[in-house]
Amino acid sequence: MFSAELKVYNHTMLMIAVCDDEQKIAGELETALIDIFARLQIKYEIDVYFAGDALNKQMKAGAYYDLIFLDIEFARNEINGVELGRLIRDAHQNNTVSIVYISWEMKYSMELFDIRPLNFLIKPLEYDKIEKAVRTYLKIAGLWAGEFTYKIGHNTFKVQVKDIIYLESRDRKLILYLTDGRKEEFYGSLKDVYTEQLERYDFLYIHASYVVNYDYITSIKYNQLFMTNSAASTGCATPLPISQNKRNEVRESYYAIMKRRRA
């Protein structure tokens, strides 16, 4: 009944490269990416390289990647990540691939300026920061334009996820509250809608009758939270109850999202 959609332009599968001569870190990064893309329900392929020369050779031969996680320091006889980045941009004339540099040190920041990296992650790598880099890429690439799909009778409708304030379950129907003031009613399971479409977009399942968009929460208390009708609204907020058995889970999820977004 429900489906989640991502807008993908030139191809439907993301091509990812991980390049690091420390096999343990490369393995940990690959594992994190597999988990992140699985949760986001995005198709992907990951190639892992343990040498900059190997990645350079493959790209020279025509290998295409959307996103590269690239170490800076390789063995002394190897091309380093800064040099490889310049080859990717200049020799391979590839200005579309996004590069996330990884290193034990911050000292390379100025050297990377002309390579225009997407991000710079410090080792040991943190899962939340890897995920943030992935989400940043998806938004910039236009792949994270989430659409929520629902059916009324035999007709299928779509709205942008960012325009949903919250959903309410009432009398076997779901009510969709939108930022433009509309309310859409349709039959469905709140639990299914949450797990299949909304959980990965930072929605919170606060009550058997309510799923809310984190972006429109103005404040949270022990047994309720308050929703605004737009990200910029200063008007009255709508109070919604938090189930007793969900209070700890909701607060933990709320602060985890806050921490991740501020990282």
List the helices and strands and how they pair.
Elements: E1 4-5, E2 14-19, H1 23-40, E3 44-49, H2 52-60, E4 67-71, H3 81-91, E5 98-103, E6 119-122, H4 127-140, E7 147-152, E8 155-160, E9 164-170, E10 173-178, E11 183-187, H5 190-198, E12 203-207, E13 210-213, E14 217-220, E15 224-227, E16 238-241, H6 247-262
Parallel strand pairs: 2-3, 2-4, 4-5, 5-6
Antiparallel strand pairs: 1-7, 7-8, 9-10, 9-13, 10-11, 12-13, 14-15, 15-16
Helix pairs in contact: 1-4, 2-3
Q: Poorly predicted ranges (pLDDT <50, ≥5 residues)?
A: 1-11
Described by the principal axes of the CA atoms, the overall outline is: elongated
CATH topology-level fold name of the largest domain: Rossmann fold
**How many DSSP helices?**
6
- Our estimate of the beta-strand percent is 25-35%
Number of domains: 2
Q: Would you mind describing this structure in some detail?
A:
The chain has 263 residues and is an alpha/beta fold. It has 2 domains: 10-140, 3-Layer(aba) Sandwich (Rossmann fold); 147-262, Beta Barrel (OB fold (Dihydrolipoamide Acetyltransferase, E2P)). It contains 6 helices and 16 strands. It is elongated. 25% of the residues are buried.
